[in-house]
Design brief:
Layout: H1 9-18, H2 31-37, E1 43-47, H3 50-53, H4 66-71, H5 93-103, E2 107-111, H6 114-117, H7 127-142, E3 146-152, H8 168-184, E4 190-195, H9 197-206, H10 222-240, E5 246-252, E6 256-258, H11 263-286, H12 308-314, E7 320-324, E8 329-333, E9 339-340, E10 343-344, E11 353-356, H13 373-386, E12 393-398, H14 415-432, E13 443-449, E14 468-470, E15 477-479, H15 481-492
Length: 496
Amino acid sequence: MGQLTHIDPDEADEAVRTRETTMLHHPTPDAKALGASLPPGFLIGTATASAQIEGATTQGRRSPSVWDDFSSQPGRIADASTTAVTADHYHRLSEDVALMSDLGVDAYRFSLGWTRLQPHGSGPLDAEGIAFYDRLLDELLAAGISPFVTISHWDLPVEYANGWLDRDTASRLGEFAGLVGERFGDRVDGWITINEPATVTLNGYALGLHAPGQALLFDALPTVHHQLLGHGLSVQALRAAGVRGGIGITNVHSPVVPAGGTEEDALMAGLFDVVHNRVFADPVLLGHYPQVPEDLAGMFGAFAEVPTEDLAVISQPLDFYGLNYYMPTLVAAGAGTGVSPDGTSEAMSELPFRLEAFEGYPTTGFGWPIAPEFFATALAEVRDRYGDALPPVYITENGASFDDRPGPDGQVDDAGRVGYLADHLSTALEAVAPGGVAEGIDLRGFFVWSLMDNWEWAAGFTQRFGIVHVDFETGTRTPKSSYTWLREALTARGRA
């Protein structure tokens, strides 16, 4: 197994001293300049997830997902909202495709509602569920928009009682992937097996912040392997189904910085880098789990005797690698107050490290630091760690939540999001360009999170990520200034 990342205490201390003043040195590019700078063939898209936008949870034979169940439990969701209606995309599909067509994007990344297509997580696909996604795919293709489909974006059937703690769930995902591959494989250009398994493990099973709400800390690590095995079995099933589109996985990567210059902070930053980044990427791209120091090995017993044949399934060559980037993480040794970037968890206070706030950076509505230079760091780390094993890369999510509200004229000015997207997209392009810090990565595209304001998991409707504003009482869509800016950028390269 590969070695745990070593973070030099002197370098860590320097990072702490400079992080308050380290910002991008180039001005925010205007839309036309950014559009003109896009490489030929570089794909620009938007992204969503079924549980966050579709609603219609009792339509047809759709059965409950773990998020339907979780959101119905008191105290789980910030504003006590549920998955029942969300953005009502199920009934506004054509309107949403028309918005994307007007925007001029190349691609749309969306996820399949597992329990809409396969009620109760077993048996054949449901005709009404098939009809919904058939119509979505056909309307996208008619509008010249390339479909990218995520098979598993967190919404497991409730019938899988132990969820990803159960190895059998990996087999169920592989079976589901085969069914949808056979049905939709002739019209999908990109297949993503699983979205952000790190967030599922850490928030759903280790900290209890997301569905299914378990707080198992390091005992949650079996869910890592089972999700990755489900990914590998899905790759096999999709290829057996003869799908035309490329196949990949999406992982979220967060560069990790020690909060101070001590050996303890460096060790805990390295530990967090392993549990957030490397245990999810190394097996897929290198075929093994990362090695950890002997005094930490007891935490990773779940990986001690992984079958070789499992790793062979997990590490099959991919057509692309999906990378989500939102923010860096600042880590200090010692237990903290139980506050994570996504909420408060009592389990956090039982960990040997704590997450601290980056000072000196503006923040999103979630309180996440806006630090686009760390996007370049994430790309450089991936390039350096995986080298020739890294396939072409898509940024499958990047975006920010802000408190967007219509003004007196009914319009929504989200200048902060315009700056965020411009800085992050230009940073990524500069990083992979000749002479850039991540030169050598074959970066193929960038998906904005998100097309529209949605139901933001445990945050409910309190966080807005969309470039289209949604009135959650009426369902009315209003393009924001970020939508207009992106359309202008895409027009500048001759796409709209």
